[in-house]
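Review session, final week

We close the course with one last complete record, chosen because it touches almost every idea we covered. It is Cytochrome oxidase assembly protein, a protein from Pseudaquabacterium rugosum with 235 residues. Go through it on your own first, then we will talk.
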Amino acid sequence: MPAATGPAGDEPLGLTVHGLPRPGEALVRQRQSGRWKMLMVLAVCAAPVLLSYFMYYVVRPGASTAYGTLIQPTRPMPALQARTLDGQPLALRDLRGQWLLVVVAGGACGADCERQLFLQRQLREMTGRERERIDKLWLIPDGAEPPPALREALAATPALTIARVDPAALAAWLQPASGHALAEHLYLVDPMGDWMMRMPAQADPARVKRDLERLLRASAGWDQPGRQEVRDGQP
């Protein structure tokens, strides 16, 4: 068949056929794209599941497994300026870097307060060699002075910090269970300074100990004995 000519009839018109992708190559690229999209969807869907497995098998929230109430989301330690019993300034965030067993009670410290402080002390000792990863904190939200005999006894207690704090600032961070007072609970703060668990009022020491041991085991890979430097919420 003769080649087509232009308007003048003296120049043949060239026809260019562009290469088309082979059907097989297009199908492979489509499958690869679909595979990546599927993996991304699975990752997004799996994240909450993996987190729930971690929380169930490590921390084990819920009345049937964990004794304490897990705080979700956790509450970061406020930038609160506290004071020691001697009136020296103390930045509460300087206490990060260790697990903290926290008691809240007025300075006069009656019988219930003394029981909480005793429980706090016993729990730390019952963890054995892991006790070096735990510090004790007594937060006093008033201006009352502890009895001299109690103050003398506590002075000889290892890993204990006593600090006066503003009650309003404290109430914005730690909160009791419904129907209970702040002083009725023992609070657990992780090494990054986040309040993450509240023990029941009149807590059973053995059950609190089990929760504490689980948490210490779960954090053994990144938490070391002794206060570690913490910056911006990271150890």
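Two points worth writing down before the exam:
The beta strands are 69-76, 81-83, 89-91, 99-104, 134-140, 160-164, 186-189, 194-198.
The helical segments are 23-59, 111-126, 148-155, 167-171, 205-218.
Good luck, everyone.
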